[in-house]
Amino acid sequence: MNKLPEVEQAKALMTEAVNWSVMKWLMEKKRVRQAADKANNVLWALQKQVKTHWPSDLKAAYDELAPKNGDTARKRHIDDDVREIAKLIKDADDEAWNAHVDAEETFDKAEKILSTSLAREGCRKAINSWDLYEKAIGKAEAAVHPTAA
User: Fold this and answer.
1) Phi-psi region of 70 (alpha: psi -120 to 50; beta: other; left: phi over 0)
2) Measured between alpha carbons, how far is 107 from 118 in angstroms, rounded to an integer?
3) CA distance 31 to 57
4) Residues contacting residue 20 through CB under 8 Å, at least 6 positions apart
5) Closest C-alpha to 91, from 130, 53, 65
6) Which of 22, 67, 122, 149 could form a disulfide with 106 if both were Cys (CB 3.0 to 4.6 A apart)?
7) Cα four-point dihedral sign 125, 29, 111, 45
8) CA contacts within 13 A on the Cβ side of 8
9) Phi and psi for 82 in degrees, rounded to 5?
10) What is the DSSP string of the chain?
């Protein structure tokens, strides 16, 4: 996966923000939020776009793992190897999403109690979530071009 400028900029900002004072945090928190939102949106759009190029059997196997709107997944005849690939990707997606939620909750708590130490922790968690998204997207891309992996 190619490096995404929006994600790299957000990582650089978060890395810098880990060392900010309380006053700097108060002045820059809007810029941090905007950079984080931009990085998340770019990653989510890329993740969605990559999955549109999957073969139909992989899409079906992934959908079995992640039914939408409360639908129960229908079992189809899908090769076990394809199911395993779908599970590996789904697990990576879930890990990235959970890391994202954890970072957001940490930032929310930091905001409520005006804690720079929690905001710093949120920065580290955000960077980790982006790293996990990049890995998950890499797995999804490898499923499109299995010989490139």
Assistant:
1) left
2) 7
3) 42
4) 28, 116, 120
5) 65
6) 122
7) negative
8) 5
9) -65, -40
10) -PPPHHHHHHHHHHHHHTT--HHHHHHHHHHHHHHHHHHHHHHHHHHHHHHTTS-HHHHHHHHHHS-STTPPPPP----HHHHHHHHHHHHHHHHHHHHHHHHHHHHHHHHHHT-HHHHHHHHHHHHHHHHHHHHHHHHHHHHHSGGG-
| pTM assigned to the model | 0.89
CA 130 distance to own-chain centroid:
5
- The tens digit of pLDDT for each residue in 9-66 reads 999 999 999 999 888 988 998 999 999 999 999 999 999 999 999 999 999 999 988 7
Burial 98-112 (b: 16+ CB within 10 A, else e): ebbebbbebbeebee
Look-up: residue for tokens 């880990």?
18
* Amino acid identity, position 56: S
